[in-house]
Specification:
The chain is α+β, with helices and mostly antiparallel strands. It is built from ten helices and eight strands.
C-alpha cells in the first residue's frame, strides 16, 4: 500500500517516572529527570471534576492537555481517538468484587466511571468539544489500533485529530490477568499537512503479522512490559530523536511500519 503520511504537532506523556515528553528526551540523553507528582495534574478539568475523577481519567486528560498545548490547536475543534487496552482496572476490579459480595452497595459514580469511553467524555465536556470522539480497545495492540484509526480520520477529513492512549495500573486478581502493573499515558496531535507547529512527519504502512519487537533502553523496556499502552514508547523514542523506523502491532495479525522524519 502507499504509505499514509501525517504530521505530528503535539506530544503528551505521563508515567510515574516521566512527567512529559521533555522528561523522556532528557532520559534518552542520559539525564535523570525529576519524577512527576503522584497523580496526574489534569489541569484541563475543572477543580470539582478533577477531585472526583478516577486516575484513569486524570491520566488521559493530562496527556491530552500536554499534546494540545504543544500543538497550539484549539481543543474544542479537534476530533479525538481515545485508546486503552483495559480501561480503568481499579474500578473494574472493585465492581467485580462488589457484585460478587454485596451487589446492592455498588457505587453509581464508580459505575459511571467504569465505561471505556469515560476519559473521552470528561475531555470533551471540559474542553467544549463537539467534534467526533472514538474509543478503541485492542488488547496489547491498542496504541497501534488507535494510531491507525486516528491517521485514517486525519486523512479522510483533512483535519487534525487528537490521539490518546492510556492504561492505569491494575490491582487485585485483574492485575494478575492483564499484567499491567503501573500507569502510562501518551497523546499525539496529528495533522494532514506540515505547518508552523510540525515536529515530525510520520509515514505509516500496514504489514501482515505482529511486527518485529523494537529494542528499547532498559528502563523503557521494563515500562513497556508493565503497561500495554507503553508500547507507544517505541514511536516516542523515534520522535525524540527526530528520525527512524519501527513496527507496532495494530491487531492480532496486523502490524504498522512507521517511519519518522524531522520536518524542515
Amino acid at each position: 500500500m502507499t504509505p499514509l503520511q501525517v504530521c505530528v504537532e503535539g506530544i503528551g506523556l505521563w508515567s510515574p517516572q516521566l512527567a512529559d515528553f521533555a522528561a523522556l528526551r532528557a532520559l534518552l540523553d542520559g539525564a535523570m529527570p525529576a519524577p512527576p507528582p503522584a497523580r496526574p495534574t489534569a489541569a484541563t478539568l475543572p477543580p470539582n471534576e478533577r477531585r472526583r475523577a478516577p486516575e484513569s481519567v486524570l491520566l488521559a486528560v493530562e496527556v491530552a492537555g500536554q499534546a494540545v498545548a504543544m500543538s497550539g490547536r484549539d481543543a474544542a475543534t479537534l476530533a479525538c481517538v481515545f485508546a486503552s487496552s483495559h480501561g480503568d482496572q481499579a474500578i473494574t476490579d472493585y465492581m467485580c468484587a462488589t457484585l460478587a459480595q454485596a451487589p446492592t452497595e455498588l457505587s453509581p459514580i464508580r459505575f459511571h466511571n467504569s465505561v471505556h469511553n469515560a476519559p473521552a467524555g470528561y475531555w470533551t465536556i471540559a474542553t467544549g468539544c463537539h467534534a467526533p470522539s472514538t474509543a478503541v480497545a485492542a488488547q496489547r495492540a491498542s496504541f497501534g489500533a488507535g494510531l491507525l484509526e486516528a491517521v485514517s480520520q486525519v486523512l479522510a477529513a483533512q483535519h487534525p485529530v487528537l490521539l490518546v492512549c492510556s492504561d492505569s495500573g491494575g490491582s487485585g486478581p485483574l492485575a494478575e490477568v492483564t499484567g499491567c502493573g503501573q500507569s502510562f499515558g501518551c497523546a499525539l496531535v496529528l495533522a494532514p499537512q506540515a505547518g508552523p507547529a510540525s515536529l515530525a512527519r510520520l509515514s505509516l504502512s500496514t504489514l501482515r503479522g505482529h511486527g518485529a519487537a523494537a529494542a528499547l533502553p532498559a528502563p523503557l523496556d521494563a515500562w513497556r512490559n508493565a503497561n500495554a499502552s507503553a508500547s507507544a514508547l517505541v514511536l516516542l523514542q523515534l520522535l525524540a530523536r527526530g528520525h527512524g523506523r519501527c513496527e507496532l502491532p495494530a491487531a492480532a495479525a496486523l502490524a504498522l511500519q512507521l517511519d519518522v522524519q524531522a520536518t524542515a
